[in-house]
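WARN retry 2 of 3 for item q-0093 after timeout on previous attempt; input resubmitted unchanged.
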Amino acid sequence: MSLLQRVVGQRESLFRVCGARSLAALRTTNPGYRPQSTGVAESVAYETDARPFDEIPGPKGLPLIGTAWDYTPFGRFPLKTKFLESFRERTKTYGSIYREKLGPMDLVVISDPKDIERVFRNEGRYPEPVQFNSIKTYVELKDAPCTLANQTGKDWYRVRSSIQKDMMRPKTVGAYASLQDDVCRDLVDVIRALTEKEDSGGQVHDFTNYVYRWALESISVVVLDKRLGCLTLDDLEPGSDAQMMIDGVNDFFRSLVKLEQSAVGLYKYIRTPTWRKFEKAIDQFRLVANKLLKEKLADTCKPEDGKPAASDTDFMLSLLSRKDVTFEEAMGMAVGLLAGAIDTTGNTLMFNLFSLAKNPEAQEKLYQEIMEVVPAGQPVDDKMLNKMHYLRAVVKETHRLYPTVANNTRSLDRDIVLSGYVVPAKTIILMAYDVISSLPEYYPEPEVFKPERWLRDDESSGVQPFTLLPFGYGPRMCIGRRFAEQELHLGLIRIVQNYNVGWTGEDMKQENRMIQAPDRESFVFCERA
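OK item q-0093 returned
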């Protein structure tokens, strides 16, 4: 089984596993064939002139393993450092749709926004998530509860439909703005203390460490309704809750990459050193998160009939009060929020700061907007955030050039026509946003950092829909999106309001840890007068 199969998903076409002909072949030999109804309205009609699946262009690869060798540490596109380059290079060679054979699995990569829209419009009521074999193995071995990330079908739909009432409503999220703003002010205090050290020259090394603390602290005031005390100048105690959470999440991603590179999945049969590290990492952040959640409930929750009373200002109690979500599901959701926010939001802040440091004109323009909207010494609320259009444009442009999540995948429950080719049901389809972001037909001067392209009143605006979806789209859009965006906006406001952000040395690059992470982290902060 190929390494990239585990990176982009595990769904093999049922027709090919059973030795049957593909739907594309059925259509070619039987023009009257129609797909069986799935019970969900289909927006893609059968196209008589569609070409068969086998004619989709793409690299040939080797017998049995296909192109999997290319993604090994010895191949053309090592998974850790050049994974995204493969999509751009192959798109230049084969076009906006191509097919790779990765062991027994077919992967179709698309970079036409119209095709991407078509995929999302046909994903059905219960979209298929990407499954990592290593995570799936852990869940089975530990009998661990499913979270929204790996839950499927009707159970996923039930939990998602209920929880998103809290997670996606702007008014609910905005109520936490002042609390998260306090965390951002503490981050600024840490920067001030670090830059005031003798001979620092304003330079802060190991800044990612403090950004991860900021990210955990920011989500803790929401989920736990308390501060963890992460943002201090001193190193965190090795056994502290905060340090164990951060270390656990970081070790999880680092070992996940190595496990998914395993061609044979030896960890399924033998507890390899990487598997032990992976297992320990998940155990660690789950243990700490559950401990913190139970402490929170013991302090504030007085349940009646097994359910606490709902609260408009307490996220966790509101979550637990829902009759259509079990206690285990609510706790699993909270654990996922606490763990998932550290790397994703933290890395995104790092990429935004680097973009501003390398583009001082954009940074100055953002600073002027901050000064106009945010009164000196006043807390930032959600109403102020809604007025900051250039800030949002900066974040979108950073997502385009330095995506934390560079692509999305789907496995549809029906066959579909993309770019004139029939793609059978259960085929893994990868939507390569990073490729689209580099193409001048969608983004004039794609190599230029230009937030103005996202402003509606700018003459050069007019970005096509479905060219950039950093949080996904549809029913499986990232459920923590609004909290992450609010946290990120507040962090940028407070840092740029107080400091001119600079950069020296070699440019930051991205490293693939399933999500993209910065490979260097040294900023220069000069306090504004």
